[in-house]
Every structure is written in C-alpha cells, then in structure tokens.
Amino acid sequence: HTAECCGYPISIFFIVVNEFCERFSYYGMRAVLVLYFRYFLLWDDDLATSIYHAFVALCYLTPILGAIIADSWLGKFKTIIYLSIVYAIGQVTMAISTIHDITDANRDGTPDNFTFHIALSMLGLILIALGTGGIKPCVAAFGGDQFQEHQSRQLNTFFSVFYLCINAGSLLSTLITPVLRAQECGIHTQQQCYPLAFGVPAVLMVISLVVFIAGSGMYVKTDPEGNIMWSVCKCIGFAIKNRFRHRSSSYPKREHWMDWANEKYDKLLIAQIKMVLKVLFLYIPLPMFWTLFDQKGSRWTLQATTMSGDFVSILISTVNPILILTLVPIMDRLIFPLIQKCGLNFSPLKRMTVGMLFAAMAFVSAALVQIEIDKTLPNFPSSSESQLKVVNTYSTTLNVTISPNEHLLIESFGVQLHTSKHTYSTISCMFVNGYTADLNITNLDSIEPSATTNYTLVNQGKRDFVLRHGEQWCEFSRKFGFGASYTFLIPSTVFSDDCESITEVEDMKPNSVHMALQIPQYFLITTGEVMFSVTGLQFSYSQAPKNMKSVLQAGWLCTNAVGNIIVLIVAELGKLPKQWAEYLLFASLLVAVSIIFSIMAYFYTYIDPAEIEAQVRKEQGLEPEEMEKETIEMEEKDEDQKNEQGVKQTKI
User: Fold this and answer.
1) How confident is the model at residue 313 (pLDDT cuts 50, 70, 90)?
2) H helices present in 458-534, as ranges
3) Which has the higher per-residue pLDDT, 506 or 585?
4) Where are the transmembrane segments (predicted)?
5) Is 152 or 239 the better-scoring residue by pLDDT?
6) How many helices, marked H, and strands, marked E, lie in the chain?
7) Contacts 24+ apart (CB under 8 A), 610-616
8) Residue 632 has pLDDT above 90, yes or no
C-alpha cells in the first residue's frame, strides 16, 4: 500500500515536479538552439536549419527505443533514471560548448577553435535526444502505475495536472531563455550569454533527476511485461516471409496478406494488427504537415531576426503554447459542436485535412511577410562581385579614380560604396580614426591614426563610447536600431568640440518590418495543429485496439521524424535563391498532399475495434459469458479512455 495525501499517492508529486523541470529544460534549450548555430557557431541559415531538424527528428525516433527498453528489459523506473543521467550529461555538455572563453586565446570575443565547440555541442545534442526521447514514453505511464484501481478519478486529475506542467514548462522556458541569451557575460570579453541560456536548462535537468530519485522509495515499480511493438513486428515479419515462401500460383490466395501469419500467431493478434495497419496506411502522407509545423522553431525564428520589435519578440516565442491552451477548449466546446448542429459531417479525417490546409495558409502568410522583409534589405554583391568602401578623412573633397575608369567624388568625411555583408539580427559599428595619434575607445582595442576598428557587435538602444588619448577624453552617445550597421568617422578636431564632430554613416538601415506581422502565421499554424494533431491521435486510438496504442504512438512519432528529415533535405539540396519561394514550395507541397489524403480518407471505412475483437473471440470458441464479461470490461475501459482523452487533449 502506497503512502497517500488527499487521496493521491505521494510519489506522483515527485513525478509532476520532475516533468515540469524536464520540459522546461528541453524547450528552453530548443528555443535558442537555432540562434546558437547561427550567431555563435556562425553557420549559415541552411546549415543551422538542417542540424536543428536533424536533432528534432532524432528526438522523435528515440521514444520507440525508450519504450522497447522499458517494456522488454529495464522497466520504466530504471529506464527513466539511466536515460535522465544521459540527458543531464548532454545538457551540461551543451552548456559548456557555448562558453567562448574556453578557446578564445586572443580574447577578441570570438572562439579560436570552432571545431571544439561544434564537436562538444553535437555530442551534447545526441545525448539530449537519447535522453528526452527515451524517457518520453515512460514518465506518463509510470505516473499512471502509481494509482490503484479505486483511484480512477485521481488518475484523471493527475493526467490533467501532468500535461498542464508540460505546457507550463514549455511556456516559461520559451519566455525566459531568450531573455537570458540577450544578457552579456564572459570572463575576458562580454558577449551574448549563451552559457546562461543553456546553463539554466542544464540545471533544471539536474534538479529534475534529483527530484525523481528523491521519491524512489515511494514508487510502485512494475516489472517489464514485454513490448507489444516487438510482437507486432515479429508477426508482420513472419507473414511477409511466409507469403514469400508461398508465392507460387499453386497456393490459394488469402483474403489479407496478414492471414499468412495464421500458421504461427493467434487470430486475435492478427486481427488487431490488420486494424493498426489500416490506420498506419493513412499516416503515409502525414509527415508533410510536420515538415511545415516544426519550421516555426528554425526558419520562422531566423525570419524574426530580420525584423524589428522588442517585447513582441518575447510574445512571438510563446504564442504557440498560449494559443494551444486557448484553442483546444474553444474548438472542442464551441466550434466542432456548432458545425455538428449545422448538420455538417465534419469527421475526424476531414478535420485533419482542414488542419493541413491551415498549415499551408500559414506558410503563404510567412511568404508574404518575407517579401516585405526582402524589400528592406540591401543589394549584396553576387559571388562574382565585390564591394569596396572608400572613406575620405581629408579636410576637402577628393576625386578618386578606380581602375580602369570609375570616378568617385567624395566629400570631406564622406563615404562611397558601402559595406560587406553582415548579419541583420545584430547591430554592428566601425570607427575610422582621422585623429593624428592613437585613440582608445570603450570596449575596443586601441586604433592607430588613419586606421579602423573591426566591425563590432553592440546591443540595441542607447550606447555610450568614451574616446581617450592620454589625458584628453570625450564621450560619444548613439541610439542603435536593430539590424543596422554604422561607420563613425573621427576627425582631427574630435577633442576640441567634445566629440560632436564625429560623422555617422549608416551603412545599413535598421530592420523596419515589425515582428507583429508574424502573429497571423503563428495563429494559422496553431489552428492547424489543433485540428490535425489532436484529432489525428483521437482518431487513431478510436480505430485500433487499446493494447495497440504504443504501436500507433510509435507510428505517429515516426511521421514527425520523417517530416523533419524532409526539411533537412530541402534545406541542403533545394537551395532556392529566395526564402519566400521556399515557403511557397512547402505550402504547395502540403496542399498537394492534403488532396491525396482527402482521397484516401474518402475511401476509408470507420470501424469499431471492440466489435471486431468480439467477433474473432466468438470464432475462437470463447464462452458467451466470458465474451460478455470481456465486452463489459472493454466498454468500461473505453469510457475511461474517453474521460482520460478529455483531460489529455491539451498535451496532444
């Protein structure tokens, strides 16, 4: 008998806190991952997107491995412990890889050995994927194991609190970690604080592990019972092998290819697998939805870095979990019942098709936003061209001739032909020293006469620079716009007029398209998620036996993984010249896939798994009383399942 508090096993409080910390850790790390690739490791957009989606795909494949390990070998408790240790090591490794000072021997704020940081971060991500995926199928089920048969009401409440913790962890971490990244930290040079942004999730994962271990003595621990997925795979494998052996026309055909497993496997198991395969066949077009959906963490994040907006950037990062929490009950309690009352047959498969179309519309919206952004960007030289910046620090206008016959007339302290390419999501500035001696500038190296500093990254808002030469000094202030680039020309009279003669040249204008324009695409993709994902799992579970849920869950996660792999392939091989064209390509592909899916759905016949199972049992010669008892139990379980699904919808 387990210890209880207010009718609940005390052990579940440890599990709930553990889940909150783990989800905070995962989503917090993921919220800044693509930015780390782009602005710390200095990868281009395509590579950053590809590695991000490879990581997400791995996170969706490893739960299958975790379920098999837990059910067939270690049991849920040991699987959670061991893989959480792997997970925590991965998060700590990832946090260490973001400390630029480790390899910054010349103390210029940039790592000298990127290979070290890349290797460490890739190792960290592989360990995180093994950990988060491996424990994903175990924690909720382990929590359910803590309840006795008489605690069905408390079990339902536990699931609702459990999934509330998932959403709370996701919401808080996507709010907090981007703010942590924006801080400045470092031992020798102050840079954007990736160690803090990744370090906090690492600490939360360690806390999650410690909390889970602390409740060890109170848990109900069940022995591994064997994994249904393994049985299903063996049965399917035998059917294929047996069919191949008897491929000759002399053998009579069977109604279904799975009937070739009759010689070895129970007819009930074969009937259950047939039902599952019917649903899995419908899963074939589904990866394309996830191809679009998961880009909100990569392409859309990178799109936001070319836009303006302070508070809105925090709002955008949290808009998905907020919309999920609000749209699920609105859809379930208001929209769907209203459609039914209008006499329309809005079946689950039709809802999923509409969900796909909403996701396609989201990408059309993203393309329109991208077109607006592109209008504000400067024209960069092509791969066969270069740009040259000529600065006149002389006291009068100069006529400059560039071979063979390009003539430039440059006024005193003026600039012609500006800037090489830089990152729009940062603000950079460069100082040109027209003073007659060396100058020291705050946070910059000393610059010699007629020399320049490197382009230096600065934070948005008002920034102060102090210029010194010996005892002479003056202060120069400037308000910086997000995404801009500036060159400051320092004249020889800089100290006599208290820095007021410094000339500012705006090489690149600040970002002017506001992040609020992204809200429609987030609303559309989240509406699509609610109609597609929630409905998809509910439909799957209603069309297959209850003991096959894990097989369907594995299939569902595989569609997600394949979707992320598609992004990876398109990002690496597609190489479309314009980002808006890529968005429209994905939208077009999803519309085409949704048409194929709607045709498949049209020919799908809805079934009642309990009825088919009862029929198979009858054919196997089960006593009517036993059949009736099993049917009643099944109906009760189905009722419990429906109640349970009601509280699980937010998570799904």
Assistant:
1) low
2) 519-529
3) 585
4) 54-74, 80-102, 114-135, 155-181, 193-215, 275-293, 313-331, 352-371, 551-571, 583-607
5) 239
6) 20, 15
7) 610/634, 610/635, 610/638, 612/271, 612/275, 613/268, 613/271, 613/272, 613/545, 616/267, 616/268, 616/271
8) no
How many Å apart are CA 504 and CA 430, to the nearest integer? 10
Q: Across residues 426-438, what is the average pLDDT?
A: 82
Alpha helices in 333-490 (DSSP H): 336-341, 348-376
Q: Tell me the C-alpha distance between 269 and 255, whole Å.
A: 16
Tell me how far apart the alpha carbons of residues 358 and 607 are, in angstroms, rounded to a whole number: 28
3-state class of 488 per DSSP?
strand
State the Cα–Cα distance between residues 532 and 603, nearest whole angstrom: 19
Q: What is the pLDDT of residue 128?
A: 97
For 437-442, the CB contacts below 8 A with 24+ separation are 437/469, 438/469, 439/467, 439/468, 439/469, 439/490, 440/467, 440/468, 440/469, 441/465, 441/466, 441/467, 441/468, 442/466
CB count within 10 Å of CB 325 equals: 14
Q: Give pLDDT, residue 48.
A: 93
Residue 331 has which token pair? 């859809």
CA atoms within 13 A on the CB side of 118: 13
Tell me which long-range contacts 345-349 makes (C-beta under 8 A, separation of at least 24). 347/601, 347/606, 348/535, 348/536, 348/538, 348/539, 348/542, 349/282, 349/539, 349/597, 349/598, 349/601, 349/604
Structure confidence at residue 601 (pLDDT): 93
User: pLDDT band at 648, cuts 50/70/90?
Assistant: very low
Distance of CA 618 to the CA centre of its chain: 48
Q: What is the mean pLDDT of residues 11-29?
A: 93
pLDDT tens column, 316-358: 667 777 887 788 788 878 888 898 888 888 888 999 999 999 9
Rounded to 10°, the helix 11-31/152-182 angle is: 30
Please state whether beta strands 398-402 and 406-410 pair in parallel, antiparallel, or not at all (unpaired): antiparallel
**Measured distance CA(82)–CA(76) in Å, rounded:** 10
Neighbouring CB atoms inside 10 A of 399's CB total 8
How far apart CA 360 and CA 319 sit, in angstroms, is: 18
Determine how many CB atoms are found less than 10 A away from the CB of residue 523: 17
| Paired tokens of 149 | 């048969």
Q: Is the pTM of this model over 0.90?
A: no
| Phi, psi of 490, deg, nearest 5 | -100, 115
Q: What angle do CA 528, 530, 533 make, to 5 degrees?
A: 90
For 467, phi and psi rounded to 5 degrees?
-100, 130
d(CA 596, CA 592): 7
Q: Is the per-residue pLDDT at 491 higher than 80?
A: yes
- For 119, residues 6+ apart whose C-beta sits below 8 A from its C-beta are none
